[in-house]
Amino acid sequence: MRGTTKRRALIAAGVVVAAGAAVLAHAVFLPGPLDFAKGTRVSLADYKGPSPTGVPKELANAAVLERGAYLTAAADCQACHTAEGGTPYAGGRPFKLPFGTLYTPNITPDAETGIGRWTDADFLKAVHKGVAPGGRHLYPAFPYASYTLMTDEDVLAIKAYLFSLAPVRRANLPDTFSFPFNQRWLMAVWGAFFNPGHRFEPVADRGPEWNRGAYLVEGAAHCGECHTPRTLFQAMDTRHKFAGGQAEGWNAYNITPDQTSGIGTWSAPEIEAYLAQGHAKGRSVASGPMREAVELSFSKLVPSDIVAIRTYLQSVPAVHTDLPAPAGPAPRDHGTAVAGAIDGKRMFEGACASCHAWSGAGVNSADAQLTAKRAVNDPSAANVALMILKGSGPQVAGRPYMPGFAGAYSDEEIAAVANYVTARFGAVASTITAQDVARLRAD
Amino acid sequence: MIKISINGTVHDVEVEQDTPLLWVLRDVLGMTGTKFGCGVAQCGACTVHVDGTPVRSCQLAVGDVGDMPVVTIEGIGATPAGAKVQKAWMDLQVAQCGYCQSGQIMAAAALLTQTPAPTDADIDAAMAGNICRCGTYVRIRDGVKRAASQA
Amino acid sequence: MDMQPSPSPSGASRRDLLRGLAYGGLLLAVGLPLGRLAVAREDAPTVFAPDAFIRIASDGAATLIMPQVEMGQGIYTAMTMLIAEELDLPLAAVRLEAAPPSDALYGNPIFKVQATGGSTSVRAYWTPMRKAGAAARAMLVQAAAKRWQVDPAACETQDGIVRHAASGRSLPYGELAAAASHMTPPSDPPLKDPKTFRLLGKTQTRLDIEAKGNGTAKYGIDALPPGVKVATLSSCPVPGGKIRRVDDTQARAVAGVRQVVVLEDLVAVVGDHMWAAKKGLDKLVIEWDEGPNATLSTESLRAAMHEAAKRPGVPVKSEGADVRPGDAGVISASYELPFLAHAPMEPMNCTVHLRPGACEIWIGTQVMTMVQAKAAQAAGLKPDQITIHNHLLGGGFGRRLEVDMVDKAVRIAAHVDGPVKVVWTREEDIQKAMYRSTYGSWLSARLENGKPVAWRHTVVGPSVIARWLPPAFSGGVDIDAIDGAADQPYAVGGFHVDYVRHEPQGVPTCFWRGVGPNNNIFSVESFIDRLAREAKNDPLDFRRALLTANPRALQVLNTAAAHAGWGTPLAAKAGERVGRGICLQTVFGSFLSTIAEVAVGDDGTVRVRRLVTAVDCGMVVNPDGVISQIQGGLVFGLSAALHGRITFEKGRVQQSNFHDYRVVRIDEMPAVEVHLVPSTEAPGGIGEPGTTTVQPAVANAIYAATGVQLTRMPIDQTLLAKGGRT
């Protein structure tokens, strides 16, 4: 009896260890960014056809600074390396993470506080490997696991552009991570597992447009950093590539071709308009971090690159998630649909209906349409609440935009109006609470 | 050159497409009855009717109006609802400083056209987008009801 | 404020001057922008101008030169009624002209300057305007009596006609006007017995009502002199800051942008229309030198006020037994109000045409002569080289008692060829404005046998008066800041009031509807409720017992309480707590009591359900006008109580437009009842008192509902969640 029990215990322990190892292996050994595409991966030199890297043909003869400016925009360096109201690229933007706050560094060529003393090799090592001069490991909030795909030539063009900027003296702020997250050497372990650590390899069986799209999406544009869910180890879960993630409290939605939860029903021009202008009529308006990505990055890309990005996005495997398909037009009578959300209706009628209309169809511009929009059909209502708090739409002279209402409306009111909006114009009524809104407000 | 129909008259205006209708009315055509209050569709002072719908003209690009007819405070008296609202506003002495009242009257006229016998909730829903700093709300509500009763 | 109206303007020299102006065609009167009223009748010359206010033409047309400005308070109508009553003219027969700038002729008898504000117009002009009408009438009667060779006492007037009943003769005023101008004005013309008033005390239709319903009413922002360009501006977001550098490359590329004007403290973009100017402004890259106020914050400003409160104040009242905070048995509390913007619906604007030796201005202002002086200073001209076209005001609330918008517009116009309309965006209007300051009140009292026997009130706040009307600032006491503190209605035994002048660093402050009493009524009425609780008495009964010597105050209190159903149960829905609260005040020469009824949700959300106000404002000119002003004043106060707050961070105002500087909308409106108490006393002000009653009434009602005494405004709902505070 005793022997049997012991053997059973050993078997059980073995199973547990094996299962643990399998789970660990599953979490640690993730598919590479282009593995889904199958086909033959070749080196850039061996790829037949126009190079998928570098700048588009419109800029083929441009000077290095112009090429660098284009690639810097494509990599959207400015969004993260600029504090609110601060000088572009001088850093200082806070990223609030669960274990502390990280401040982006100054990447202007100031010798003391910026990267003015960095050599080409220093810069390449930082961008490709996440290791700064002196061997300091960078946190993967800096998306080197994506940038690692960019060619040396492209990375150095970015460096040339950054070094052409006026140096700004602004000392970097220390991050506030607590133990063990303040142990930067741990990032070396992370990088060893989760940084692909190699340059882009085109897929020979795919056309130049697809490969160009792949280079931009997986490399410079680093879409997966927000749109791909994270594993336990905070790596991009490439098994669910682009199935939706998070960015500074905002939901970065499913951008796979899934018919209900993704963008499978979006037409090519809709996806392209969304990227280039931040708005796909009747689909979505870019807000929050995506609004920044559009204004600072995608809107500066030439049309052929937008088409390439769209082509690639449409080719990734569809991943079905639990986001419901957007609802159709709202019922004319709002009385029964939102019983219990009466305060939300009050805020809506005073502050919202002027632009969005009682039908949710938008009064003045298609941007203001609520019905069918992804955020309104997100049962978490996180993005709706964030748009109410922080505003939405282009911060461009001459274009209508939505102001943020955080200053004058309470968490209760914003939760109520968010729940009213999802109930009346979306697929599922949300139940966001004042506490949820308070958290989003603090982010 | 943009063609635009206001109160039944077609005007040719030479402005950029993105110019809000408000400034075309006020600064280009000299029709100053429509007022500027906030510029972000939060106050309603600039309300006009475009194709019968109350619209904040500070947020509507003139290029988006197309051939939809525009009616302003200068022309609303020619509509049955507008005339009733204007009369009720006089009878009840609604206006104080009067600056927001063009927008209030336009919003009320649109409400009565759609909902001839509005409830208090209907009035809240239609009029809450129109701010009055003098605080004439008590009379605005009464004015809408009075206009509705003059069927 | 306790000031007496000065005697009506009279005297030969002034009359001669005026007559000369009128006949010489120099009278700079401007047709008031009121649609049909604005049509100037040039056909018949003025032949009778007995004083600064009345013109009668040979065809009988009567014109009132209007010294006060219309900003919604109905003063055009009220002033016209005063004159038409004594002159025996039908209201519709009087045409209005805005008075030209002249403190000597048109100075508000209370302020001595040509200003409309402080709820003073009817108080100031009740007698002078009636005397003007009566004097003119007497001269017309003399002229008729002389022609008919009869006793003037045997003549009567009615509807613009003089009659001699005995002979059956009659003549219209127009035919008598020329002769009347040679009559001697009576030094003290008798006024009508109020019992015989035709107009006064009876509701009249507002003279401006039609134009305000059909888009023809003209405000300053509607001025369109030929060839006018439109400019919009950005001043430094930190008060007192300067421009360091402006890159206008992109702005100049905007279609319709004509010019970028960079001055020391602001930059303006001039365009063909507001849109071009606004788009251009958005495209400017401006580097500011933020100056010494760049670190201001709401917290630093508040801390400075609290520090100031520790200083000894200037004694305003010091009678009887004293009381000090901290002494045994002394009840103490402090109350604070935030910074506020005025946010009138018509954003700040001023149109200027500056030419060599002349400056023409189109504006809606509460202060004609101050505009004139400021424009002259900014343009380097003499005041008489400034012509002002005053307009209707799209709300004033005190903001248009200031002339910063004139100064900026004239300085911009100095760089523009031709007329330029400078229009502030709403963001500029909220963020680069002048503000209602923070104020604080520190109160202490001692009770004996359930009644106060000693009272001390220290008022801490800036002196707007010291800057705005220096002659009225004497002895270190701001008579506005202590209004409502030094003269509160209750018998409280020993009575001590101090004033600590504290100017908030860097923040330009100015008057705001309700002025000083906003602070003092809020604190005194909140503190009275506190004392009632300490005395374990009902807030109504507690007040009544202290008002035995103040029958008018007691009467409005009792009237409001009766209409509000004080003491009767209130219905409450599940998940809410309900209560009533009282305010009583005796400021602006009027007696008001407001009783608020609130429902506070378990989550702390406050809904004001009902406001009942009883008013005794003495003799009433236009009763519906009074009710209208009280209704509006209550809403203005409600916006302050529920939402009003301007905050500073890094020297900048954090609010920018109506989405974050919130005001009450129609769907937040309580039921409002205004009850006029008949009175034969001298008229009181009615523009502001409604506003000042709301904050204490609502705060006291919230206490009744929740047991939480709010001592700061606006209402902080997080303090009111059920179980959220013990």
Automatic annotation (TrEMBL), chain A:
Its main location: membrane. Pfam families: Cytochrom_C. Keywords: Cell membrane, Electron transport, Heme, Iron, Membrane, Metal-binding, Repeat, Respiratory chain, Signal, Transport. Gene3D superfamilies: Cytochrome c-like domain. Its cofactor is heme c. GO terms for cellular component: plasma membrane. Binds 3 heme c groups covalently per subunit. Residues 63-166, 208-317, 339-425 form the Cytochrome c domain. Heme c 2 binds at C223, C226, H227. GO terms for molecular function: electron transfer activity; heme binding; iron ion binding; oxidoreductase activity, acting on CH-OH group of donors. Heme c 1 binds at C77, C80, H81. Heme c 3 binds at C352, C355, H356. InterPro entries: Cyt_c-like_dom, Cyt_c-like_dom_sf, Cyt_C_IC, Cytochrome_c-type_DH, Membr-bd_ADH_cyt_c. It is found in: Cell membrane. PANTHER family: ALCOHOL DEHYDROGENASE CYTOCHROME C SUBUNIT (PTHR35008:SF8), BLL4482 PROTEIN-RELATED (PTHR35008). This is Mono/diheme cytochrome c family protein. It comes from Nitrospirillum amazonense. The lineage of its organism: Bacteria, Pseudomonadati, Pseudomonadota, Alphaproteobacteria, Rhodospirillales.
TrEMBL record, chain B:
It comes from the Bacteria. One of its GO terms (molecular function) is oxidoreductase activity. InterPro entries: 2Fe-2S-bd, 2Fe-2S-bd_dom_sf, 2Fe-2S_ferredoxin-like_sf, 2Fe-2S_ferredoxin-type, 2Fe2S_fd_BS, Beta-grasp_dom_sf, Diverse_Oxidoreductases. It holds the Pfam family Fer2. Gene3D superfamilies: 3.10.20.30, [2Fe-2S]-binding domain. Keywords: 2Fe-2S, Iron, Iron-sulfur, Metal-binding, Oxidoreductase. Residues 1-76 form the 2Fe-2S ferredoxin-type domain. This is Isoquinoline 1-oxidoreductase alpha subunit. It comes from Nitrospirillum amazonense.
UniProtKB/TrEMBL annotation, chain C:
Residues 214-292 form the Aldehyde oxidase/xanthine dehydrogenase a/b hammerhead domain. It holds the Pfam family MoCoBD_2. InterPro entries: Ald_Oxase/Xan_DH_a/b, AldOxase/xan_DH_MoCoBD1, AldOxase/xan_DH_MoCoBD2, AldOxase/xan_DH_Mopterin-bd_sf, N-heterocyclic_Hydroxylase, OxRdtase_Mopterin-bd_su_IorB, TAT_signal. Signal peptide: none annotated. One of its GO terms (molecular function) is oxidoreductase activity. This is Isoquinoline 1-oxidoreductase beta subunit. It comes from Nitrospirillum amazonense.
